[in-house]
Amino acid sequence: MKVVNVQEAKTHLSRYLEQAAAGEVILIGKYGKPLAQLTAYAPQTQARPLGGLEGGIWVAPDFDEEDPRIQALFGGPGA
User: Which parts of the chain are beta strand (E)?
Assistant: First the structure.
């Protein structure tokens, strides 16, 4: 794992991108504290199935209905 400061990362970005693509982890820091991590891009290997949460969450039947108390707070109808 290599640690570089922001200025060095800006100056040598192409070099660090190549190193990250080769599997090296580059930490970019400021004032000695890590701010970001540069790593190789790993595409998602498997598509998530649609409806994966079906039956696992519940939505109230009146979810889309407007609440008159909230409307009143914003000067809406019935305020």
Answer: 2-5, 26-30, 33-38
Its pTM stands at 0.54
**Contact present, 27 and 36 (Cβ < 8 Å):** yes
In a domain, 54, yes or no: no
For residue 50, give Cα distances in angstroms to 22, 58, 78.
Answer: 33, 17, 41
Q: Cα-flanking dihedrals φ and ψ of residue 43, to 5°?
A: -60, 150
Residue 48 lies in a domain: no
- Residues 62 and 17: their CA atoms lie apart, in Å, by 50
pLDDT tens-digit readout, 16-74? 999 999 999 999 999 989 999 999 998 888 888 888 888 899 989 999 998 888 888 99
14 domain residue, yes or no: yes
